[in-house]
From TrEMBL:
It comes from Astyanax mexicanus. The keyword Transcription does not apply. This is Protein FAM49A-like. The gene is fam49al. It is found in: Membrane. Keywords: Lipoprotein, Membrane.
Amino acid sequence: MGNLIKVLGKDLENCPHFFLDFENAQPTEAETAVWNQVSAVLEEAHGILAELQSYNGAGQEIREAIQNPNDLQLQEKAWNAVCPLVAKLKRFYEFSLRLENALRSLLEALTSPPYAPMQHLEREQALAKQFAEILHFTLSFDELKMTNPAIQNDFSYYRRTISRNRLNNQQLEAENEVNNEMANRMSLFYAEATPMLKTLSNATTKFVSENKTLPIEDTTDCLSTMACVCRVMLETPEYRCRFTNTDTMLFCMRVMVGVIILYDHVHPVGAFAKTSKIDMKGCIKVLKEQPSNSVEGLLNTYCILSTPKVIKHKANPFISAVD
């Protein structure tokens, strides 16, 4: 097919090779309903990343308030600085819930009978592109979050202030927007090193457990095929030269790492087992051939989100790649 081309490689029998046009794939009529639903969510993704990238926190105001506990003016200044930031953090968290629902819709579309996962990726390229865009956003968000301690510091100060005022029988107006239940859920979300990726991992695991009539292999094969697609495009000069945007290389790397992590969480024995359909050594080789500043965050993300299944594999190439 036009944008999705089989590549006859020397190890084709072990791993399906495809070139998927992540830049230009457009939805067919059959894809339109799901594509529109997911597109409405993805339209917000760029704005979310921009807000997170510009998130500076209220560290100075919080420090002054803590150092001068009896200065009511400084307490109010810190509170007024933190409240709009917490409202922003709430929007990020609520977006993660919408992203989770979008992922579920894509998983249903890309694994449903009568087609095999590979056939779905071949027939529904626009949905595969959206799946990749969700993973790209997720790892981009988490890379920014991991390097910004102000997020947890601000939210911790907010919760401490709320608790202190409750003890004094005072209720602050901001509690109406972020009630105790919401604050608890947000706290669990931001306590994760990679909250968006953890959300998607849990959502994928839940999707598998709730769809008992759907073989788990349908989901894991979808993920392993996507990982192979990205690896082939990254390691093959003829296909890299098709990228018209220089950012597509990083896009492919993020997507490859993201699907490997999801595969590792969903597959019963993980991504590093001999039965895994992902060429882990090939994926690591491709990453290590890229500039270190492009892949260091991705490798660290994987190590942080490694499961006990991964830890058991002493020859984990992701771990050794960052040693």
